Amino acid sequence: MAEDKEQSNRIVLVSTDKEFLATTRTAFSVSDAINLVTIEKAVTELHGDIQDAEAGAVIIDIDDANLERLEALQRVTRRLTDRVPVIVVSRGLDPAMVRIIVQLHVADFLVKPVTTADLVRSCIRALKGVDKSDTGEAYISAFMPAAGGVGNTTMALQTAFLLHRSATRAASTCVVDLNFQNGSCAEYLDLEPRFDIAEVENQVERLDRQLLDALLSKHPSGLAVLAAPNMPTEMRSFDTDVVVKVLDLVSAYFDNVVIDLPRIWFPWTETVLRGSNHVYITAEMTVPCLRHTQRLIHAIETEVGKEVKSRVIINRYTPKGLEGGVKATDVEELLGDRFAGGISNNYKLVREAVDRGVPLHEVDPNANVIRDMKRIILPEEMQLEVGGKRGFLGFGKGLLKKTG
Q1: Tens digit of pLDDT for each residue in 228-284?
Q2: If 0-12 CB within 10 Å is exposed, 13-18 middle and 19+ buried, where does residue 63 land?
Q3: Element (H, E) at 147
Q4: Longest CA pairwise span in the chain (Å)
Q5: CB of 298 within 8 A of CB of 306?
């Protein structure tokens, strides 16, 4: 069974283009989920090489296409007898050549220069097949605080760990801390923030898989964190296209993306909310915070649209409420179906985890906080897996058109 799984995630690249071979090796070197095998031959020189490699998908670089190479490509696709999807890469082609390639029923056709993001997306789609219920895109959860100090970062990080370790969503996961002024994601996990956004904001075209890997902080669990060093004296607002490009790149390489949003509404906030599968507002059981929550829900509906339905997580939740204070019935009546659930008040556990720089489950895997988070986050994941994943809106696709 393990051997079958390894084969299904193996991609064979056929090319004689040294630069393309190098960039593709770099793009896939950081992924444990995909095993890249390279065959440095022209398509005209292939015989049984691909069959011997037993691939889950094949990338064939025909470079400057001519009739001889297209005939060789046809022979290869026939030998694979529709068992293995083929992705064709080439330089510019005339319409007649394109028609021939399309008639071969290849899985995808990419024109050089190929961005690593496009190549990775194409490979993921090919490996997963043509199941329209699963686009192969990242699953994105955005967390936004209704007020300061409500535990938004804790909610985002715990969600990331749950998705990273879940039986239904276990896959590569990245946390993106968009609080550029005073974010805490890296500090909570005792990691060094490595994302210097000033380095790329004026040359966004530099962003590629290799640069992204240099900007990521890696947790021992395998969780990746994209976080910038704190700048408490600087209030900076970055161009929307920069933020979208970053999220587009992260989404191309990770199955789960969890975004920790700042409380302040920036020009790119609407774009991030539109591109997320789920939007969670983190709040607590106080009258001022619940009023802030109502205003934030209204702002999202007004600025973003009612199709983005935010759900509220009440942190430090006390079902019976404090004497003379807000009660659970008040919260449920106020929020209605916006109420996602409450997280038990376990200050000691959370403080120990933060001080040690470890996830909550390393302190107590059976803690009430973890149990509450599972009830809110994971049941919906299971429903999505059974019923087909919601189509990802896509950073760098429709959203770029909207903001561009």
Answers
A1: 988 777 776 677 878 888 888 888 888 899 999 999 999 889 889 988 889 999 999
A2: middle
A3: none
A4: 83
A5: no
Mean pLDDT per 10-residue segment, the chain (404 residues): 55 90 82 79 80 76 83 82 80 70 78 78 71 57 94 93 70 89 90 84 72 86 89 73 84 89 91 90 92 93 84 87 72 89 90 88 89 82 36 39 32
Give residues with Cβ within 8 angstroms of 134, minimum separation 6: 128, 388, 389
One of 3.40.50.2300, 3.30.200.20, 1.10.10.10, 3.40.50.300 is the CATH number of 2-128, namely 3.40.50.2300
**pLDDT score of 45:** 86
> pLDDT tens, 348-400?
999 998 888 888 888 898 899 999 999 998 854 443 333 333 333 345 433 33
Query: Does 139-403 match 2-128 at the fold level?
Result: yes
pTM of the model: 0.63
User: DSSP character for 287?
Assistant: H
Query: What are the structure tokens assigned to 172, written together?
Result: 């590569």
Q: Collapse the DSSP code of 160 into the 3-class scheme (helix H, G, I; strand E, B; otherwise coil) and give the result.
A: helix
Return the domain boundaries, the chain. 2-128, 139-403
* CA atoms of 30 and 253, how far apart (whole Å): 9
User: How many angstroms separate the CA atoms of 216 and 97, rounded?
Assistant: 41
Closest CA to 69 of 48, 49, 38, 45: 45
Q: How many other β-carbons are positioned within 10 Å of the β-carbon of residue 219?
A: 21
Helix axes 152-165, 368-387, angle to 10 degrees: 50
Closest CA to 57 of 117, 146, 125, 155: 125
From the number of C-beta atoms within 10 Å of its C-beta (0-12, 13-18, 19+), residue 18 rates as exposed
For the structural domain made of 139-403, what CATH number should be given? 3.40.50.300
How do the residues of the chain divide into helix, strand and coil, expressed in percent and rounded to 5?
45, 15, 35
The answer to whether 37 and 53 are in contact (CB under 8 A) is yes
Distance between CA 270 and CA 243 in Å, rounded? 12
